[in-house]
Design brief:
alpha/beta, single chain, 854 residues, disordered C terminus
């Protein structure tokens, strides 16, 4: 989980640079430091560890005396202890000073360490809370020599998924993982404790191979001590403020300030117990972080709390809601939206997800109560609209649909209720049941037959197959005399997108008006249409701006749909870290409601692709949380499970993969899902370039009208045909476009295929072409690799040497790994023999693709 952080520490210490590890209590500071120390000891470092303890802060020299140094009688002053420790650090060999929890050291020990740091150049690893205000003594120890800062951020969804699986011995389902993330705030210690105590309390049970919640809460008395330890350093006034806020819930700052002092709020925010967020409706709001603290206080309610609740209500009534102005979002520039997304990564996903949950729960409860009083179609539609984004209560939804009076109902509300009923019918009886619901509605309401038929077409195309286009002009062409409704037009645009005709879909949607009934359909078609048309940057800007507005509006439906579009653009551009964070923030909210749940599953499979292509060991994939009982093909990438299943297979040969991939693409085309076929063929060509898939891709692109991929296709054809002279000319005259990342991946994958197949001449030519291309178009983004091919077994040391062979000499590799140049040469010879690679460069690229970096 902390491999990247540990490797950074090892690199810093290897260059004589100290490291200060900072993070919230329970963020893993000690774990990371201990792991780094373990690895350093294996390379010959001698560790001198000093540990701070809360109960020893008032005991002079308690920390440094824990080193067990031998002292002369009567020589136990600061400088005496410093001289002994400095002499130990000066002995032959490599030495490291470890100071765990420097904020808990006594003043005398700090004085000793300051003197030692002045005498010794040995690097130091220190851990401290993220928000701690360092004393002069602590700064005197830290600010000696060169130092790097390592910030430990809260865990994201994928990391929580992996950690819970490790703790419980098996994966948890989507909602359980999201709930644990939400309650823990991404704090590793809390993740572990919540999972452990919930299983001990039978709040988590194992069903069908995954851990699931047996009730509605994960709070249990076994967690009380963990939260008390978290709050141990807070003064009484801050603890009391948290108690009040726990009862008050998420609230506006101006309301909070009426019952909690500004000093307490500032103190809690500074120490990381308060998260401040911008809410489009309510202005600036605040919530307790991590949210499990709320459960702790709510489990200790007293009579005094009732007075606090009355104070809360009075404060709410006296305050005037803030109504901020609506700011229009515009496609400004890619740099801006990517910068905003990266800065967002430091925020607390768990608190944001909880805010969405609370907002949806309040809306659902209030609208249900309003419906119970007056069971009109308008009130029913208002309630069911919540379920289109937030998690669905199927029992309540079915009851509302059954008991609602449709007398004198507004036509749009009636249509919305019918479509919602059809969506429920899909879950229970499949597509045919949903179509029957809409057909009966069309017969009973002939004036809305066109809208009902459009809904049937939408559901049929999304859950079955896309009908073949009629010969001649589109029924929704601009020259048509009868002007169709907005839903009809948008449905046709979506169908054209499914058919792999994004330019036609964009033409239709640009001329269409916004649909009040389904406001997210038009931006979704436009955003994904831009992506499918090869206008990747425009699609990214559009989708990320849309997502930002949806987050402000607490619109879960909009967040899921916009994130799905943006994730594709980020993945296509090689921005894997940003894409994983973006999808992780969606997963943290739990499974969403109608329609977008298939996009949620699609993102789970997209998130699993990177792991499937890069891992060489069996691990629990996040893609396993997606619904398994779905077809192999679907209308949009990731909706069908076939692509992921094919890529995740182990020990395939390239020719076998090519046949299976082409078979899958043909199935997608037979179902009318040309868009999914196009994106799958592009991915397969980049991962395992082969003739059959490339021929299918050429056919699909010709039918789509998309020409932006022509340079890529020419290069891919030269690679597959083995025409290295033409390949060289094409690469020489290539100008960077939307496919520059794909071409780099294509060249590396082609090299690996030739090595696996034993074609040494072609491998050598492709190695030169790949290296030359990488030098011309350097990318800061990681190259997606593909590791399901069988490869000869290399030792760990051979992998380390091979991973450096592409850009370091034998002497430099030996210095880096602390072995002789002759040993390096032996390792490279063995690796070349085992892999069949013909040069250091091809070995470096092959092994760099096959094995993840250490």
């Amino acid at each position: 989980m902390f491999d990247t952080e540990v490797q950074r520490i090892l690199d810093y210490v290897g260059h004589g640079i100290g490291v200060r590890i900072v993070g919230a209590p329970g963020s893993g500071k000690t774990t990371v430091a201990s792991s780094a120390v373990f690895n350093l000891e294996k390379t010959g470092f001698t560790i001198h560890a000093v540990t701070g303890l809360r109960t020893h802060r008032a005991i002079p020299y308690a920390a440094v005396k824990g080193l067990g140094m031998e002292m002369r009688p009567g020589r136990s002053g600061v400088l005496d202890l410093a001289d002994v420790l400095a002499s130990q650090l000066a002995k032959a060999g490599k030495h490291l000073l470890l100071v765990d929890d420097i904020h808990l050291l006594d003043n005398e020990s700090l004085a000793v360490l300051e003197a030692v740091r002045q005498q010794s150049a040995a690097p130091m690893i220190a851990t401290a809370p993220e928000t701690h205000a360092f004393t002069r003594g602590e700064l005197a120890v830290l600010n000696q020599g060169r130092e790097a800062i390592l910030q430990l951020d809260p865990l994201h969804y994928e990391q929580v998924h992996a950690l819970v699986a490790r703790v419980l011995g098996g994966p948890a389902d989507i909602d359980t993982t999201a709930r644990i993330l939400t309650k823990s705030g991404g704090n590793p210690r809390l993740v572990v404790r919540i999972a452990e105590t919930a299983s001990l309390s039978n709040l988590l049970v194992r069903r069908d191979g995954s851990w699931q919640m047996s009730g509605t809460s994960l709070w249990n008395d076994h967690l009380r001590g963990t939260v008390e330890a978290l709050l141990a350093e807070l003064p009484p006034e801050d603890v009391n403020a948290l108690h009040i806020m726990a009862i008050l819930g998420t609230a506006r700052i101006d309301v909070l300030q009426k019952i909690v002092s500004a000093d307490a709020l500032d103190s809690l925010e500074r120490q990381g117990f308060l998260s401040i967020m911008d809410d489009h409706h309510n202005g600036t709001i605040a919530a307790i972080s991590p949210p499990v603290i709320v459960d702790y206080f709510r489990g200790r309610r007293t009579l005094r709390d009732r007075h606090m609740l009355r104070t809360k209500i009075a404060g709410m009534l006296d305050s005037t809601p803030q109504v901020p102005g609506i700011e229009a979002t515009t496609a400004d520039c890619l740099t801006r939206v990517l910068s905003a997304l990266r800065s967002e990564r430091g925020n607390d996903d768990a608190v944001t997800a909880r805010h969405f949950h609370d907002h949806s729960a309040v809306r659902e409860r209030s609208r249900f109560e309003r419906w119970e009083i007056n069971k009109t179609a308008a009130n029913a539609a208002a309630l069911l609209r919540v379920y289109w984004g937030a998690p669905v209560d199927p029992v309540r939804a079915a009851r509302v649909l059954e008991e609602t009076s449709t007398h004198d109902a507004d036509p749009s509300d009636l249509l919305f209720l019918t479509i919602t009923k059809a969506l429920l019918a899909i879950q229970a009886g499949g597509l045919s049941a949903a179509v029957e619901v809409l057909q009966q509605f069309a017969e009973a309401h002939p004036e809305q037959k066109a809208e009902a038929n459009a809904a049937i077409q939408f559901l049929s195309a999304s859950h079955g197959r896309v009908p073949q286009p009629d010969a001649g002009s589109s029924p929704y062409a601009e020259s048509s005399e009868e002007k169709p409704g907005t839903l009809e037009v948008l449905t046709q645009a979506l169908v054209e997108l499914y058919r792999g005709r994004p330019l036609e879909a964009l033409r239709i949607v640009d001329a269409a008006e916004d649909d009040e009934l389904f406001p997210h359909l038009r931006p979704f078609i436009k955003g994904f249409g831009l992506f499918a048309a090869g206008r990747i940057d425009e699609s990214l800007v559009f989708a990320l701006d849309w997502r930002g507005e949806a987050r402000k509006n607490l619109d879960q439906f909009g967040v899921v749909t916009s994130s799905y579009v943006a994730a594709h653009g980020l993945l296509y551009s090689g921005h894997f870290d940003e894409a994983e964070y973006l999808m992780s923030s969606v997963f943290a909210m739990g499974r969403p409601g109608f329609v977008v749940d298939i996009l949620y599953d699609a993102m789970l499979r997209l998130a699993g692709l990177r792991q499937a292509t890069t891992t060489t060991t069996a691990t629990v994939s996040i893609a396993a949380q997606a619904r398994a009982g779905v077809p192999d093909v679907g209308p949009l990438p990731g909706v069908g499970k076939g692509v992921y299943v094919l890529i995740a297979k182990e020990n395939q040969q390239p020719a076998v993969f090519d046949r299976q991939a082409s078979r899958l693409i043909k199935r997608q085309l037979r179902s009318g899902y040309a868009l999914e076929a196009m994106m799958a063929a592009l991915l397969f060509t980049c991962l395992v370039p082969g003739r059959q898939v490339l021929d299918l891709l050429q056919r699909i692109l010709r039918g789509s009208g998309v020409t932006v991929h022509d340079p890529f296709m020419a290069i891919a054809a030269a690679v597959v045909e083995g025409d290295h002279q033409l390949l060289g000319l094409l690469l020489k005259h290539y100008g960077p476009d939307a496919d520059v990342y794909q071409i780099g991946m294509l060249l590396r994958s082609a090299l690996k295929r030739r090595v696996v197949e034993g074609d040494n001449v072609a491998a050598e030519a492709l190695a030169k072409a790949s290296s030359s291309f990488a030098a011309r178009f350097p990318s800061a983004n990681e190259q997606l690799a593909f590791n399901t091919f069988e490869a000869s077994s290399l030792t760990e040391r051979e992998i380390e040497v091979a991973a450096l062979a592409g850009y370091l000499s034998n002497v430099e590799i030996g210095e880096r790994l602390r072995i002789s140049a002759r040993t390096v040469e032996n390792h490279i010879s063995n690796a070349l023999r085992k892999t069949g690679a013909t040069s250091r460069t091809s070995l470096f690229i092959l092994v760099g693709n096959t094995f993840p970096p250490k």
